[in-house]
Design a protein that fits this description.
The complex is a heterodimer of chains A (about 350) and B (about 290). Chain A is mainly α. Chain A is about 70% helix and about 5% strand. Helix content of chain B is about 75%, strand content about 5%. Classes of the chains: A mainly alpha (about 350), B mainly alpha (about 290).
Amino acid sequence: MYWLRWAWAELKNEVLVLPSRTLVLAWVAAVLLLPVVYGDAYVMRILTMTCIFAIFAASWDLLAGYTGQVNFGHALFFGAGAYTSALMSHKLGITPWATLWAGAAVAMFFGFVVGYLCLRLRGSYLSLATLAFPLIALGLLFAFPDFSGGELGISGLRRFVLTPTANYYVASISMLAIVFGLWKLADSKFGIVLHAIRDDEVAARASGINTPRYKLIVFAVAAGAAGFAGALFAHYLRVAGPSTLEVALSFQVVIWGIFGGVATIYGPVAAVFILYPLTEWLGSFKAFGELRLLIFAVIVLLVLLFMPRGLTPWVRDKIETQCPRCKQRNGAWRKACRLCGAVLEAEVTGAQRLVGHQ
Amino acid sequence: MLQDILVTGLVNGGVYALLAVGFSLVFGVARIVNIAHTAFYMLAAYAFYTLLVKGGLGFVLSGVLAVGGVTLLSVLCYRLVIEPVREHEAAVLIATVALAYIFQELMLLTFGGHYLGIPSTLEGGVRLLGVSIPYQRMLILVVAAVMLTAVWFILYRTRLGLAIRATANDLEVANLMGMNVNRVAMATVAISVALAAIAGVVVAPVFVVDPFMWLSPLVTMLAIVVLGGLGSLKGSLIGALIIGYVEAITVFALPAGAYLKGAVALAIMVAVLLARPEGLFGVAFEEER
């Protein structure tokens, strides 16, 4: 009874006061409860893929958004996870539940190597150099088709579980765990260091932060999460093919990340949950089937013209205001800050925006 | 085989140089990583095909019209899509990615996904040192050389070129000196896309023309630009020749070389970056923090 009262108080005072937190709560509830309400196999399939890609996009954001290492070759880690898990379970006959972790570990190793190679690179150099790695891997896969299956990849993999709903729960629960884990990590002291590295690496180093070590750790963590997503993907579709390493997938994750708003973790996840089902749904119409990618690109372009910082920061600024005194966030309808009581005036924020515009 | 390597490397290097110099120019002046750069190259190839095969215009006329049209389109895209989000680097980046996808899908819708055959501009060939070189490949080489010289002339012998170099050097100061930085950036975009479009027109009869033809030169071009040093024209030129020859050697000398040519070229780029993070001719980072 006490715990119930405590939970209700927490819920009322910490979650429901902010629209953004309420939205997150509603989203978690929806993700967990949807199969109970509406368990259509097609919907389950799309949402399973959405969850897998949400992990992938969130891991990119930790690396690119928080640390500023804008990776154009994130598909390498996805593909490494997919191929490792697929090869191990197919050739050695190990259960996918174990090879999943092996895939994540190998991806982590790849992340470490890429991070090590890219330690001295910055900005656009890093982006363009990282673009090369998945393509090198792709070239090697095509050159040794006996081992990798060449163009066709490795097919006929085992699934984790058999029913669509159970598969959905495997993907969605891992998605929730990883996304909240990454979010917690990015919100911790570790995440603040990452912000510092992105904003000014020299200053961070001068403050006594071992920036190479942090960058390597971030590369490994992000790659591990992406590899996990890749392994889930391979065993869900029952095939690990060259498409997991393609430039298109690397660009896709960059689009998701920037569309949703970088350095937020929830932004890219929201972007995947909006864009992926949307494009699939559009693709299901006969007339739109061929226009799918076109419509996708046009939507991305239009949204960016109006919200250049991405979708979620824009929405968050609409539904919440920041207290000028204590920097806590408040619902947009409040007249006074919920924590320190300072007056929240719309006119003042307008003037501040004029002055403080970068 | 040696002669094959020499000729193929030189021709591919010339095409890559046209692409990479343009990309480098825009990056240097406007700090735009233009992913859609090779999409314009693809568009030019399609425009050339339409005007030549469907429209029945001559080679020269359709080539000039294709290049002009694509250049105009690029300036339009720059004004409508890139300029409004210029301050947000990330937004510019995916705006160009989105543009590239839009062009790809539009071409896929209009022409379908199959390869298009385009008749050679010049038939026949010449035998040189025991290897036969089709005139079309000679044409590519000549056009590339002429265009690169023209770019050099514009950059180093005209007032516009002076403005472009000044803007690339320091945007704020150039602005303070009374240059219209936005117009300089626009002119640079036009020059750069014109180069890509010319490359697209001359290679159309030799390479395959399909809606996805922009992806593989894009990656090679980015590798070249990073290898040579971002924003450095000399670097792009030398990088293009290096990568062109490396690809040719891989294709002719290694088993399964056709699959590995991209991988080897990219591996060389990574190796150079390990030794010199700013590329062969790039500026060291410490200045721009």
